[in-house]
Amino acid sequence: MELGRRLLAEFLGSAMLAGVVIGSGILAVTVSSGNDGVALLGNTAATAAILWVLVATLGPVSGAHFNPAVTLAFAVRREISAPMALVYIVVQIIGCVAGALLAHGMFELPLIQVAMTDRSGPAKMLSEGVATFALVFAIFGTIRFAPKAVPAAVALVIAAGYWWTASTSFANPAITIARSLSDTFAGVRPADVPGFLVAQFFGACLATAACLVLFVPVREAAEAAD
To answer: Who has the most CB within 10 Å: 98, 161, 193, 206?
Structure first.
């Protein structure tokens, strides 16, 4: 039952996250009268809001990863086993794809789509590496020093990433795959997906390494103080 709850939490969280990212993008374009800045602002606010809620409510159940790059980071730190990490990642991808289909259904769009939005180029790849680095860095930093602030940290780092990165901060391989199946404001061409995934996983690994140096575990810090 415990395993089932954890996997259900990862599935529902991933589905709701993808549904909000894509659905809010669809509505934002509809009501913004062609103003991309206003549309992005709406997309940002909705994404940050649902992230806070999902991490706060599902964190105690599954850890609220909803993100293969985050799961990989926890696996590298040996805080989740490799087999469980693999199961998490599969469930996250399935959940995000389900969320994309849900968003399309709510707005009476074709359920299956192929994104046409061009997000190619080294700057976009660099941005995804940086965005994922920032996300993982924020997670481990707040877990170490301010655990109650994790939901806010995750929401805020993604909100900031929408506006300071050239890629608008996907920072999530499962979301990237789902967004390649949505020819909407939040979409990304399938051809650009591999570069995004490589950059995201690289950023997550780099952040994990940095956090191991910067954030001394509680037990080690106590021993050093003695």
So the answer is: 161
Place of tokens 């789902």: 178
Q: Are 216 and 54 in contact (CB under 8 A)?
A: no
Number of residues assigned to the chain: 226
Q: How many CB atoms lie under 10 A from the CB of residue 83?
A: 9
* 18 Cβ contact partners less than 8 Å away, ≥ 6 residues apart: 95, 96, 97, 98, 99, 100, 103, 174, 175, 178, 179
CA-CA distance, 217 to 151, in Å (whole number)? Answer: 20
* Buried/exposed 146-166: b ≥16 CB within 10 Å, e otherwise: eeeebbbbbbebbbbbbeebb
pLDDT per residue as tens digits for the range 179-199: 999 999 999 999 999 999 999
Identify whether the C-beta of residue 69 lies closer than 8 Å to the C-beta of residue 203.
Answer: yes
* N-term to C-term CA, the chain: 42
- pLDDT given at position 216: 79
Q: Rounded to two decimals, what is the model's pTM? A: 0.94
> Which of 202, 141, 140, 144 is closest to 171 using CA atoms?
202
Give residues with Cβ within 8 angstroms of 47, minimum separation 6: 17, 20, 21, 24, 158, 159, 162
> Which DSSP string do the residues of 36-83 spell out, in sequence order?
HHHHHHHHHHHHHHHHHHHHHHHHHHH----SHHHHHHHHHTTSS-HH
